Backbone:
């Protein structure tokens, strides 16, 4: 699918699997942390940009309650389809198809804007952050998270190395694409240029756990579109290489890695 945005969230190969697996491993606790950092309150109006299958939007909806409002914007229709299906069993959320650099919302419409692990995929990051600024009411708040480089996310550094040998340069570059934000200063400047104030950038350090190395390989490569990558031969080669590279990260519960991202909280 052609898109103004890029990255594994936008692939049409596995939104359902993304919701079933990725939200549990990567997204749910981080979404809760974003809402805590922005002090989301009942009755507030919330915008979730690049909402994917809706994990942040659903948690936000529970907090703002029936008198609040949550709007999720996502470019990928397949992600939105899953989001609507899952959210049918939760509090009402309005999902809109749209580009982060031209959000389909009114000026000064929201108290809070949220964007979890998506800004690094936007071709025009500056325009997208300006759009979030536009959508916020005066004194409105924003919370956004962005991966640090692979140096600080060794699970992906090792997987990229394995992909270069067994999956090809294109697959490796696809996996590398989210890990481009290099410094606190880079993050702060992005939000300053958009007009935000009271900007606070936190280097969040967590652990990333998988039940097994095979689980890590299968699901982290899930949304790479190349069919050859998903054959038993290539998957087996990736698993064997990863097993050798990360043997010291294995314990009785699976495999665990440190993981770092930046979290930005600011005010309009």
Residues:
């Amino acid at each position: 699918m052609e898109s103004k945005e890029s990255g594994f969230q936008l692939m049409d190969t596995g939104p359902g699997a993304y919701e079933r697996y990725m939200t549990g491993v990567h997204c749910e606790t981080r979404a809760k942390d974003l809402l805590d950092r922005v002090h989301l309150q009942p009755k507030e109006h919330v915008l979730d940009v690049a909402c994917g299958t809706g994990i942040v939007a659903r948690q936000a909806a529970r907090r703002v309650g029936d008198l609040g409002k949550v709007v999720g914007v996502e470019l990928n229709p397949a992600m939105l389809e899953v989001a609507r299906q899952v959210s049918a069993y939760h509090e009402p959320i309005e999902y809109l198809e749209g580009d982060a650099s031209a959000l389909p919302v009114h000026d000064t419409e929201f108290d809070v804007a949220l964007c979890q692990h998506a800004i690094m995929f936007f071709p025009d990051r500056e325009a997208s952050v300006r759009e979030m600024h536009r959508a916020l009411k005066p004194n409105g708040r924003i919370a956004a998270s962005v991966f640090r480089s692979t140096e600080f996310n060794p699970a992906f550094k090792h997987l990229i190395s394995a992909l270069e040998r067994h999956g090809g340069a294109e697959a490796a570059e696809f996996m590398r694409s989210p890990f481009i934000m290099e410094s606190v200063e880079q993050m702060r400047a992005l939000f300053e240029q958009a007009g935000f104030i009271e900007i606070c950038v936190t280097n969040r350090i967590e652990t990333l756990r998988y039940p097994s190395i095979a689980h890590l390989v299968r699901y982290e490569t899930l949304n790479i579109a190349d069919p050859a990558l998903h054959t038993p031969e290539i998957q087996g080669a990736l698993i064997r290489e990863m097993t050798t590279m990360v043997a010291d990260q294995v314990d009785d519960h699976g495999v665990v890695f440190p993981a770092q991202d930046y979290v930005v909280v600011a005010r309009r």
The chain is about 40% helix and 25% strand. The radius of gyration is 18 Å.
